[in-house]
Amino acid sequence: MTGTLVFDPLLPLWLIATLGVLLGAGLLLALWRGLSGWGLRALAGAVVLAALMGPVYQQEDRQPLSDIVLMLEDDSASQSLGSRRDQTARTADALATRLAERPNTELRRIPIPDGEDNSGTRAMTALSEALASEPQGRVAGIFLLSDGRVHDLDRAPALPAPLHLLQSGEDSDWDRRLILKNAPAFAILDEEITMTLRIEDMGATPVPPGSSADLAIAVDGAAPQNFTIPIGEDIDLPITLSHGGRNVLEFSTPGLDGELTDRNNRALVQINGVRDRLSVLLVSGAPHPGGRTWRNLLKSDSSVDLVHFTILRPPEKQDGIPVRELSLIAFPTRELFLEKIDDFDLIIFDRYKRRGILPAIYLENVRNYIEGGGAVLIAAGPDFASADSLFRSPLEAIVPARPTARVVGQPFRPKVTDLGTRHPVTAGLDREHDGPWGHWLRQVEITGETGDVVMTGAEDRALLVLDRVGEGRVALLASDHAWLWNRGYEGGGPQLELLRRLAHWMMKEPELEEEALWAEANGQTMRIIRRSLEAEVPPLTLTTPSGDMHELTLEEVSPGRFETLFDGPEIGLYRLANGDLDAVIGLGPAAPVEFERTIASNAELAPLIDSMQGGTAAMADGLPRLRDVREGRPAAGRGWLGLTPRDAYQTLSVTQTPLLPHWLVLALFASFMLLGWLREGRR
Predict the structure, then answer these.
(1) pLDDT at 463
(2) Model pTM above 0.70
């Protein structure tokens, strides 16, 4: 039972203060006039002012509450290093026993697991949630049992009591890690990029200063190249990507006896290789209604550099116009087809026929260009069926079909073949346009196809043929009426998408390869994708970073596309193999955030610990003594850590007794006023 004096004013304090000022002024007037009863009148006014303040004697029936101590136990991945986990468990049990011996004290044990998605130790998140569920007025202390490596300090709450760190680890701990800086997500093919690499020793390392370490670099899971670099120095590493799409680079240095872990001795980087600019040469043999179709398509792509020539005046034309008056430039055949032909990613012949402009030796050079890795697209018109056809030239050996000299002049709707539904150039074209496709009105009859027929036209004859020649690619479109779709004839069709895919397939864009294997990662789950022209694909073999092998069945989700899902059990480089194709993919960083800095330290937590004058103690030195300290006083010293008793209580009942009841105020006021009046009257 406790008793206190409280006030419950009947009027606002400013009004009571005003009445007090008026009372004081009246008393001064009485003194000035020499009234003998001023003292009694002052007592009467004081009784009224005291009554207006509402004095109450309050009695509370209180029940004492225990102090609460929070103990956060770090169970993240970094605690598995050395003997930290056992060390932490022993210290936690010893601390729990010692707190149980203290009177009026309750303990809350809070585990700190690994954060989701490799987010590290979320100690401050766990502390915030614990404080939100406890009355902060009862928290007498907080103990964090950890190596001190916390990764969510930005979420640290306001502390109601001292925070103490019981730090795991040993003074003799040391570790080596590989650091890779400024690794880009994208890089331009054939252009050098520079990454900065560093091998660093931390802690009580036995390696003398100035030593070197071995470094292995592997690209796309191939055999690594070995180097020797100095320890503790930044090394600039020039790298040039060799192919488009995902390039997986793995850097590693061997682990040494005695270091805490080798999980941070490797770095995994995935860089997407992209082309800076695609160079295209477009040669139009004659003006025609669709002559600007290819030009507009290629000019609309900001990543394409287009060189376009239209042959308006063949050499045999004699019209008497002086050469100096012509506004046309000479066709730079030698420069384009001898000196700079290898600079082009794609050459398009649009309704071109032999007219003496390109000698046979130049066309032979085009054939060599294809066999060496180039790409040629022939958009055929009636000229392809004539005696001057481009087929009847040194290109005959690489053209995927031969003309029969017949031109079919009847309307037809282009149609994707069964093979075309599986080929990335034409797969899903029906979803790119609403409604039926419009008719084309002319097609060159071709036969003897040697490549993949992905579209047919009139009389169900081959319309679009794709073929690979040596290292290069050739496509033959046996009609010059694709522009009708562009004009919206009979509703049009997916002309833009078809020609875009066709051009990019010929320029070997990775996403349009007809035989491909790759994987896409989402956290620790990967989606494995296999594209093939075959109706079935064999089982896929997956090798984990630790060397375990899994055989997975791929299911066809759409024509030519097979997929499966796999949950990676560990972080690192996975190898995929299916038939003649193989690929690699990295799940998560090679060194998770928990293993970036492995040496125990209180440096990151020091500002938070110092804010409430807490302390740090090494578990290896034993559990410090516990001592009670007053709030605001230092809570740590040599060999001891402090708790702040909160003396919290629960109020069971409250009784209030007015000190000046109304009848007493009236009696006192009347008595003092009467006595004052009598005294003044007697005088």
Answers:
(1) 93
(2) no
